[in-house]
Amino acid sequence: MNDSRSVSNGSPSGGGRVSPVLLALRRIGPFRGFLLALALVLVGLFAPGWLGALILLVLVVALAALASRTWPVTPPAHRAVRLVILALLLVVIIAKVD
């Protein structure tokens, strides 16, 4: 059965290659990944000026890359939430730089 929403798991029959970053995220698990992202957001929010903005920018780039890799299998409602979160983080980055 070939489902267009399936993601390659790195097996030869999967037709694609999984990046090392995604394999590391798979080992971390969703709950620990959430806690890591939350910790980075808090550090970025409380760090002063440019340092905090840089930490948040690294997080935004990482989350955007992850979202782009999982976009085909993400339901539309979850896509919207991800875009809103990324936009809010960008607004915070701009506010921290000013």
Taking all residues together, what is the mean pLDDT? 84
In the predicted model, the low-confidence regions spanning at least 5 consecutive residues are 1-14
- Name the helix and strand elements from N-terminus to C-terminus, one letter apiece: HHHH
Taking the sheet with the most strands, its summary is:
none
Q: In percent, how much strand structure appears in the residues?
A: under 5%
The share of residues in helices is over 70%
What is the structural class? mainly alpha
* Beta strand count: 0
Task: Determine the number of helices (DSSP H or I, runs of at least 4 residues).
Answer: 4
| Overall spatial form | globular
What gap, in angstroms, lies between the N and C termini? 53 Å
Rg over CA atoms, rounded to whole Å, is: 16 Å
Keywords:
98 residues, globular, disordered N terminus
Report on the structure:
Helices cover 71% and strands 0% of the residues. The longest helix is centred in the middle third of the chain and has 22 residues, at 49-70. The model is unreliable at 1-14 (pLDDT under 50). It has 98 residues and is mostly helical. It is globular. It is built from four helices and no strands.
